[in-house]
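Hey, I'm writing a tutorial for new members on how sequence and structure tokens pair up, and I'd like a real worked example in the thread rather than a made-up one. If someone can provide the structure for the chain below, I'll link this post from the tutorial.
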Amino acid sequence: MKLKTLLLALVLASTASFAQKVKYSKEEIKKMEQYLFNEGFNMPSPKKTSTVILKDGSVHKGFCSKTDSKKGQIFEVSLKDSITKKTETFGADHIAEMYIYPSNAEKIAKVAKYMGNIRNYSTRKLIKTTNSDRIYFVNQTVSLKNKKDDKEFLMQVINPGFDDIISVYHDPRAKETGGVSFGYGPQLGGGVIKSYYVKKGDKVMWLHKDDFEDNYDFLFGDNVEFMKKYPKNSVEWDYFSFLVNEYTSMSNG
């Protein structure tokens, strides 16, 4: 009986492994390669008013004079009142949400980076790099890189507007795939972000491109229609932002 059960399991596993791949058209692939997340920023502007909302509901505004981080994630924020010049410091464990503006220096650096990679021209919108809107941060308890003890941090939500099922947070320490450049010309290829922090349900994890396939069922497997249209043997990590957006749209009907 045990042998029959084992053989059946092997057959099912083999069937799943060798399931026919979905072939997408060039137009579909081009659409899936579009980067739909917001740009991740690490440096707040000290010249524009930031807003911190504490867990007790109180709202505090001021110039973000300082942030303290661990592995790039913010665990403490200092706000300087524009009138009194008094500085207040808040720990992430007391903050529910935060809205800040990106620094001009970082925006300029990101524009230069955008222009330095030809792939960006067809997959990203430059306007997101020069974004003048406030950036949304939310308190989240997470294990950095799935290795450290859980701790509360302020993490930037980079998929606002389609984060009601899966929330994706900026990984300030994320690396990018490499490309090829010739002399002083723009880089060809590469530039794909390798990791994010992702929340679904009560689970928050650091998701690296190498672990994407292993976590695919957890992220999308509860939507049969989506899995049929975008099985994991037919998609790539490059499509991640599209897949999160599509999954959310299909799940919400």
